[in-house]
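Re: that backbone. Tokens:
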């Protein structure tokens, strides 16, 4: 009887923990003290969707932005987040900071660099440089 009661309590507690998981699709806000020294001007946005071939009901939305960063025209790919549809992403000037530079060879190409883009309402979007143009 006692073992059954303990097992039942354990199962109920584990179900409660499942409901407390973190939702990574929610919008994140900038932490106090973070600096965003890079100026970015976004001139165009492209919303695209990708469908998983194995699960056609599973659609992922991406935002691609045409931007000028450090005097170079680049395309920024913003990571998929559930809040894309409800967030109005305005064009204009923003601040950013470099989070990760995968190229350690000293090449000046910004491809695949990871940035955090700070929006006017203190919301942060993570984005990757996915293209370069003249």
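Recovered sequence:
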């Amino acid at each position: 009887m006692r073992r059954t009661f303990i097992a039942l309590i354990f199962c109920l507690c584990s179900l409660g923990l499942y409901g407390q998981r973190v939702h990574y699709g929610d919008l994140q806000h900038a932490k106090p003290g973070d600096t965003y020294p890079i100026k970015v001007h976004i001139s165009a946005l492209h919303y695209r969707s990708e469908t998983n071939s194995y699960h056609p009901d599973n659609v992922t939305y991406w935002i691609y932005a045409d931007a000028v960063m450090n005097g170079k025209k680049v395309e920024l790919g913003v990571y998929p987040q559930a809040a894309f549809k409800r967030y109005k992403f305005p064009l204009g000037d923003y601040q950013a900071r470099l989070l990760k530079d995968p190229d350690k060879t000293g090449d000046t190409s910004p491809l695949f660099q990871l940035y955090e883009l700070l929006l006017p309402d203190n919301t942060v979007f993570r984005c990757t440089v996915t293209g370069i143009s003249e």
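The helical segments are 2-18. The longest strand covers residues 38-51.
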